[in-house]
Amino acid sequence: MTAAHAGVLTVRGLAAGYGPQRVLRDLSLTVPRGAVACLLGPNGAGKTTLLRTVVGAIGAARGSIRYAGRDGGGDIELGGRPPADIVALGVALVPQHRMVFPSLSVRDNLLAGASQRRDRQGIGADLQRMLVRYPALAERQRQRAGTLSGGEQQMLAIARALMSRPALLLMDEPSQGLAPRRVQELSAWIRELAGEGMGILLAEQNAVFASAVADRSYLLQDGKALRLDRGDAGRQDARAAVAGWWEAGAGLPVSAPDAREGG
Length: 263
Ligand SMILES: Nc1ncnc2c1ncn2[C@@H]1O[C@H](COP(=O)(O)OP(=O)(O)O)[C@@H](O)[C@H]1O
Ligand SMILES: [Mg+2]
What we know:
Layout (H helix, E strand, L loop, with lengths): L2 H4 L2 E10 L2 E11 L4 E5 L6 H8 L5 E8 L8 E2 L5 H7 L1 E4 L11 H7 L7 H14 L1 H5 L10 H13 L5 E5 L7 H16 L3 E6 L2 H7 L2 E6 L2 E4 L8 H15 L13
Parallel strand pairs: 3-8, 3-9, 6-7, 7-8
Antiparallel strand pairs: 1-2, 1-4, 4-5, 9-10
Helix pairs in contact: 4-7
């Protein structure tokens, strides 16, 4: 495979888990540059495990995690590198359940996302861009992040990740708990980022949202990623599996909006 076709992230034959428990087994997927790949799967399938393995929080037992780097430069193996190095290379994770720092201000949360950077002017410019891009954060920049609504905290978690200037953005169930209006905003933002050239790997249970925003999709099943959006018959069982849990509710905008999302 040539670098041009390899995508910003190319995972091959990945195995990872917790101690003796293998969660991922021979998992392969590709995130093209400037595109959104979604990874669908029910609770416990291993979506978070994959994203945490890519950012180096969990060690891989086997396989390769190739990253094409910023500006298409280089082809770098991420496996075995410490998490801080991976962030510095341009990989950012928006963790599940947002995980903003509740007692820090909105502004300090954003600055925390740039902690690997040394270009003070660039950081200041990016901070302004985030506040312009998301005026609700600008209005609340001195407030403690814990006082924001769930939807605002999700936008803050994304903006914080963007402050590291990633070339690859990993998002762990960002639509969880959001009101439908927020999910639409999120879709628009994700498409905008892909349009700017970022590669995005979106782990989701909400198949309606994910398939609307994604350029390609995979189902995580039995520790492997099955490509869903190809015509070959071999993928029909995977599509049937998605339909199965979709019927069971995963495809609906299931998450109950939190109390402050109503207005
Ligand atoms: N820290 C952990 N230690 C041991 N097992 C874990 C840990 N985190 C997750 N698991 C297990 O790994 C499997 C995959 O979990 P996870 O990656 O969180 O799935 P998903 O994000 O798709 O819901 C589950 O069986 C879960 O119980
Ligand atoms: Mg998860």
